[in-house]
Amino acid sequence: MHSLRDQDALIPRPRGTLPKMCALVLAAVTIGGVVILSPDTFFSWVAMVSLILTLGPLLHGLCLLAEEILHHSNTRYCGGRLLSHVLPACGLGGKTLLAAVLAGVCLYLTGNPLPQKSQCCLLSLLMSVLYALFKSLGLLGPSEVEVSDICEGRKMNVAHGLAWSFYLSYLHLVLPHLENSIAAFRATHQASSTWGCGSKKLLILVPLNANISHKLEDEDSNISFYDNLPNTEIDRAGVRGRVYKHSVYRVKDEQGKVRECVCEYATPLLTLYKMSHESRAGFGESERRQQVLLFFRTLQDILEHSLECRNRYKLITLNDEHEEDPHFLSKTILRHLQQQEKEEFCLTPHPRQEMADPFACVSPLSERSQMSREPTIMMSMEQPQSLKVPEECTDHFYVAK
Q: What reactions does this protein catalyze (predicted)?
């Protein structure tokens, strides 16, 4: 049986800054070598390379600008806002233009590093034009890692939208009412319910293959449907009293002990699964798995920062590598229920014990044993009272003469 740490090992972490650090080290080593080999023309070479690196993207941005103005100015930019929207969208922002101008000024002031001035102009122009050509042909396009990093950083993945939709349109609405629903359910099922050993959280199952069964008992014979919690009715999007419901399941362990819990699959995974089987969506199985992992990480981050949903849910990943075990689902649910029971602590105070004789003398030995105990917090149940104001004494004493 795998530990719960395996779940954290499956979820990808956000990408860090290691590529930037490697680029800084590589640039520092290269610049140090150039300074040692040719210190006189170092600034000239830096200026010329900077001009080439900034002039190439500017030429490519002009090519993009021609397409946007001729064919998309009305549909994408509402026919205007050229300087504020179209130019930055094509990579012709103020920072790029400023960098190119500064590089040109530095090259003019430091001088030409090549023997002939025409060679410098020809090299800068040729490399910039070839950069724009290769960029347009896709030869210098971003790699899959760069695209993934951009989409994750800007929250542009399908998983981000599905996670936020699942939270705002469902979990954010129903989880605050879950505790009351469970209390009402226990009140009406006292005779047949064994909820004392069950979970009071909503168990959200997230299978990595996104293949969801509509009935949990079809996946595992040790799981059986018990009943539904009382419906939660909320006015939503013009629908009066829209009904939200949860199902209660009984999960049996190997010893035959039954535990009850509120359990369901993450519904947005059905969308990912159907998208992977639609050729028009351009969504394969490998992309689907990555999106499921991002969905889990995004939803976990959203719920951890939600005060309304805190301590009312439990996200459980289901690895598809254990499909040969017919009771894998029930074992996974029971493992999380056992972990939850270990994490819960009894917060109710112990009953107060009355002393037989409060004025009885305490022996030095018993007093020493009481002093050696662990300190406890003494809390008074009485209402706080204001400080008494000193009263003026009106009694007069007369001295006999």
A: H(+)(in) = H(+)(out)
